[in-house]
Design a protein that fits this description.
mainly alpha; 16 helices; single chain; 406 residues
Length: 406
């Protein structure tokens, strides 16, 4: 009996080992398959497979439109209320009356705010790669207002949205009368709206991770899968990037609101991980979004504004141009276009709207315009590639599901 019991235990151990080895083999095969599929998807880009990429992009667009239409139909009551409100606003917009001055004011403010909120969303929403709208739009806008304020010794030029160019007011002002706080106040609205847009753009990772945790299903997102792998191998993490991600995750998880606020208040490329962490651990929506909104639209935005305003203050700019001229050999040739650009900006600030606009274009402004065009084109290409790769992932998952059912 004892021998039979020993044999039975040995057989159970052998079966357990075989089952474990089988699961390990299946897991390694699945990981290898995912790696190969990911490499295949990354090759679906316009410069390698243009026809396939465009075809997959169009098909993914149609699928998304169908899904959004179904979601809108399910919420047709809310949609009907929104359409009714739009109809009332449209009627008020076109009916003449004393309210028109308020309507025009609200229209101007609404579109100005929507413009900067939209740019903020584009900067952080993660469609392929974010469009760096701070460097391309908000930063130059703050810089131009700063240069104008120091040149005009006033910030009493028109309220935003500005006309084609800022014109110095006719009022008499004394040299050095402009203050740093006055410039901050002048650009506060557009800066805070841009920051609010970046906070809204951080919501998709949060909702994706939250929905995956509540449903128990594996999400169709590689960042979330990397996050789960990071949690599994937290104790063995060695490289700096993994330790930095774990530090963000621990800060958000343990400190809560103030941890999220700290991560959102500084330039932080790992903040997407904070959104995924909050969603995964079911942090309340208003705790996450409130901390993100305060951090990005108030604290971080004022830090960035101060940096740009100080960098483009009159004496700093003059010192930088002088330092460029001090570079041996090539200094004077590099200094000249910067001086011409600054002089052209000063002339534009002082000419009246009915006067002749100075003609001519500096190569610095020409280069910046071309840089903006290149960045926007790359952003559009990244969206096309990203959506095409999403459709390729749909096909791979469908094929995997069919293989499992056989």
């Amino acid at each position: 009996m004892a021998e039979n019991g020993t044999d039975c235990d040995q057989r159970r151990v052998r079966m357990s080992k075989e089952q474990h080895n089988g699961n390990f083999t299946d897991s390694s095969m699945l990981s290898e398959r995912k790696r190969r599929e990911r490499e295949e998807r990354l090759n679906i880009v316009l410069w390698k497979k243009p026809l396939v990429t465009l075809q997959y992009f169009c098909l993914e667009t149609l699928i998304n439109l169908k899904e959004w239409t179904i979601k809108l139909w399910r919420r047709r009551g809310v949609l009907a209320c929104v359409l009714l409100a739009l109809a009332v606003l449209t009627a008020m917009y076109y009916i003449e009356g004393a309210h028109q001055q308020y309507v025009r004011y609200m229209e101007k403010k609404f579109f100005w705010c929507a413009y900067w909120v939209g740019l903020g969303i584009l900067s952080s929403v993660g469609l392929g790669t974010g469009l760096h709208t701070f460097l391309l739009y908000l930063g130059p806008h703050i810089a131009s207002v700063t240069l104008a304020a120091y040149e005009c010794n006033s910030v009493n030029f028109p309220e935003p949205p500005y006309p084609d160019q800022i014109i110095c007011p006719d009022e008499e002002t004394t040299e050095g009368s402009i203050s740093l706080w006055a410039i901050i106040s002048k650009v506060r609205l557009e800066a805070c709206m841009w920051g609010a847009g970046t906070a809204i753009g951080e919501l998709p990772p949060y909702f994706m991770a939250r929905a995956a945790r509540l449903s128990g299903a594996e999400p169709d997102d590689e960042e979330y899968q990397e996050f789960e792998e990071m949690l599994e191998h937290a104790e063995t993490a060695q490289d700096f990037a993994s330790r930095a991600k774990l530090a963000v995750q621990n800060l958000v998880q343990k400190v809560g609101f103030f941890g999220i606020l700290a991560c959102a208040s500084i330039p932080n490329p790992l903040f997407d991980l904070a959104g995924i962490t909050c969603g995964h651990f079911l942090v309340p929506f208003w705790t996450f979004f409130g901390a993100t909104l305060i951090g990005k639209a108030v604290i971080k935005m004022h830090i960035q504004k101060l940096f740009v305003i100080i960098t483009f203050s009159k004496h700093i700019v003059e010192q930088m141009v002088a330092l460029i001229g001090a570079i041996p050999s090539i200094g004077p040739s590099l200094q000249k276009p910067f001086q011409e650009y600054l002089e052209a900006q000063r002339i534009k600030l002082h000419h009246k709207s009915d006067g002749a606009v100075p003609q001519g274009e500096n190569w610095l402004s020409w280069m910046f315009e071309k840089l903006v065009i290149v960045m926007v084109c790359y952003f559009i290409l990244s969206i096309i590639n990203s959506m095409a790769q999403s459709y390729a992932k749909r096909l791979q998952q469908k094929m995997y599901s069919e293989e499992k059912t056989k």
